[in-house]
UniProtKB/TrEMBL annotation, chain A:
Pfam families: ABC2_membrane_2 (PF12679). GO terms for molecular function: ABC-type transporter activity. Keywords: Membrane, Transmembrane, Transmembrane helix. GO terms for cellular component: plasma membrane. It comes from candidate division WOR-3 bacterium. PANTHER family: ABC TRANSPORTER PERMEASE (PTHR43471), SLL1107 PROTEIN (PTHR43471:SF10). The lineage of its organism: Bacteria, Bacteria division WOR-3. The chain crosses the membrane at residues 21-42, 54-76, 97-126, 146-173, 185-205, 225-250. This is ABC transporter permease.
Length: 255, 318
């Protein structure tokens, strides 16, 4: 089983690596971080924080883009191009396929994250900002946010087109960062239906704000280890649940 | 091992309907299809476009579920991994990961089929040789022609040395030499005791290599059996060529013949029976025409196929 999951995961990774989109996104991300060199003389005292914040935000943003753009099509493409026939005709169980695809995508994101972080630290060195290891906590939390987002993208890509999947995943990402708003909306709205939908979405959609600790990291605020551990546990449970749903949907499909 | 007499592939009242289009109209792709393929047989699955060949094959591979009825392969449900390990499959107009080289792709398929790591390179080389693709072994498949893809498709279907091989239009995109090579591969599979099931609409290939054929039209099996039973070899018609028949005799001859074709001073007549031959010859003698040839013709698979497709169409099968 692990052998087959690994086979599919590695192939997914190989596909993305040989695709220009991934390389382009990583290069652009590093260029954006490097653009901090330009602001440096302008923003005097705040420069250090801006450079750190820009770098960490760029890492998150571009990895999210990779998760949405590349992740949204990994399952669909196999179905559309009918390469999936060749996989499912072999002793590959359908859940192995979904997990393999997911792991492959996480491998892509892991490598992207490492490359971008390396680029980030290089930029810090070049701009003379102290490359504190503490910044890595923010990258780690981004990694777990990506785990959820990729599972969302994989789930969507089992039944909608890559474009729709990208749009839906982006919507989830966007709302996932505004879940507090949903709760407030539900609290103040007089209409029960709005209350219900607001609370429903609040509980069903992933709460992604917890994974954003960039502000604390950059501003040297104390980190809350318990909150981080809880967030990581949340990410694991949420991802697992989404993959179960994706497998359930996929198991019943005809090709 | 398979128990003797138990069919390797079996479908029982297999039906499949799809709902498609805006109004979810129901399309009956298969209706109550019965079929049995025995161990060591080459079975040709014939049918016009849209007859349901691919649908049947998808069910046999476990890619689709029947709406009713059932299918078994090697005595088990097609989706059982124990079955899949022993089955090789080539999809219709296959498309592979274009970013992989032929070798990388075949290694991946071998790995997924459970070929042990140490055996993979050897198997891959062997398969590339079998389908004569060694020259493109390390090329990315994005540049492959249709026929090259088809060859790789056959290689991946056989990479794990399956007992049962199911191929959907394997001759598609192959040139005449490729078709010949492919037929040789299939025949060699039979010699190894393997069972081959393939769909096609190229009748010549079926006539040359199949032990048995099934003809499917409009989702129904309209004929199934040995080629020798289907095409009994009985004389179906007799063609007589006469030379120098003058105009006044021609009318009488054309009345006897089912068909008559004139070309220059030659007259080609197709008649049904021996008696008709006698009658034609009598007139010919009277007309002092020369008899150039008398050729009995038996039904070809093509004629048989066309006739079955047509009659099934008339009965509302299509
Ligand atoms: N996924 C699907 N959704 C809706 N209808 C389908 C689907 N697959 C097949 N059909 C319908 O089922 C019927 C049989 O199709 P099938 O592909 O099995 O034919 P075929 O015999 O393989 O034809 P061909 O020789 O052209 O490959 C057709 O009417 C087709 O439109
Ligand atoms: Mg077909």
């Amino acid at each position: 089983m692990l052998n087959r999951i690994w086979g599919i995961a590695f192939n997914t990774f190989r596909e993305s690596v040989r695709d220009r989109v991934l390389a382009a996104l990583i290069v652009i991300a590093i260029l954006v971080m490097a653009s901090a060199k330009v602001i440096q003389p302008v923003a005097l005292g705040e420069a250090e924080k801006i450079i750190k914040d820009l770098g960490l935000s760029a890492i998150t943003l571009f990895c999210v883009l990779i998760a949405i753009l590349v992740g949204g099509r990994i399952v669909y493409r196999e179905v559309e191009k009918r390469t999936i026939y060749l996989l499912l005709a072999r002793p590959v169980r359908r859940y192995e396929f979904i997990i393999g695809k997911y792991c492959g995508m996480m491998l892509v994101l892991g490598v992207s994250l490492v490359l971008m972080t390396a680029g980030f630290y290089l930029v810090l060195l070049l701009t003379g900002v102290k490359p504190e290891p503490r910044l890595l906590w923010a990258v780690l939390m981004t990694g777990f946010e990506l785990a959820i987002l990729t599972a969302v993208a994989v789930l969507f890509s089992t039944f909608v087109t890559p474009i729709a999947s990208a749009v839906f995943t982006f919507v989830v990402y966007f709302i996932g960062h505004s879940t507090q708003l949903l709760r407030q909306l539900a609290a103040i709205s007089p209409a029960p239906i709005v209350k219900f939908i607001g609370m429903f979405l609040y509980y069903v959609l992933p709460n992604l704000n917890n994974f954003n600790i960039r502000g604390d990291v950059v501003h040297n605020a104390p980190l809350n280890p318990l909150a981080m551990v809880l967030s990581i546990a949340y990410a694991l449970v949420y991802t697992f649940t989404l993959l179960l749903i994706a497998i359930f949907v996929f198991n019943r499909r005809d090709f | 091992m398979t128990v003797v007499n138990q069919p390797v592939i079996e479908t029982v009242r297999l039906s499949k309907s799809y709902r498609t289009g805006f109004r979810m109209k129901r399309v009956q792709a298969l209706s109550e299809l019965n079929l049995q393929v025995e161990q060591g047989e080459i079975f040709g699955f014939l049918g016009p476009n849209g007859a349901g060949k691919t649908t049947t094959i998808k069910i046999l591979i476990g890619l689709a579920q029947p709406s009713s009825g059932f299918a078994t392969v090697l005595g088990r449900a097609p989706r059982d991994p124990r079955v899949k390990r022993r089955v090789g499959f080539l999809p219709e107009s296959p498309y592979f990961y274009e970013y992989l080289t032929a070798v990388e792709f075949l290694a991946l398929t071998a790995q997924l089929s459970g070929v042990s790591r140490s055996e993979i390179p050897g198997r891959v080389r062997q398969m590339l040789k079998l389908v004569r693709m060694e020259h493109a072994a390390h090329q990315q498949m994005r540049g492959f022609s249709r026929g090259m893809l088809q060859r790789i498709g056959i290689a991946q279907a056989l990479i794990h040395d399956p007992e049962v091989v199911i191929l959907d239009e394997p001759m598609g995109g192959l040139d005449p030499i490729g078709r010949k090579e492919f037929r040789d591969i299939i025949v060699s599979l039979r010699e190894q005791g393997k069972t081959v099931f393939f769909s096609t609409h190229i009748l010549a290939d079926v006539e040359m290599i199949c032990d048995r054929v099934g003809i499917i039209v409009g989702g129904k099996m309209v004929e199934i059996g040995r080629l020798s039973e289907i095409l009994t070899g009985e004389v179906e018609s007799i063609e007589i060529t006469l030379q120098g028949v003058s105009g006044k005799f021609r009318k009488g001859l054309e009345r006897i013949a089912q068909r008559s074709i004139e070309s220059g001073d030659l007259l080609l007549l197709t008649v049904k029976s021996e008696e008709d031959v006698e009658r034609v010859l009598a007139i010919a003698r009277e007309a002092q025409a020369k008899v150039r040839s008398i050729i009995p013709r038996s039904l070809t698979l093509e004629e048989f196929f066309m006739a079955r497709v047509k009659s099934a169409g008339r009965n509302g099968g299509v």
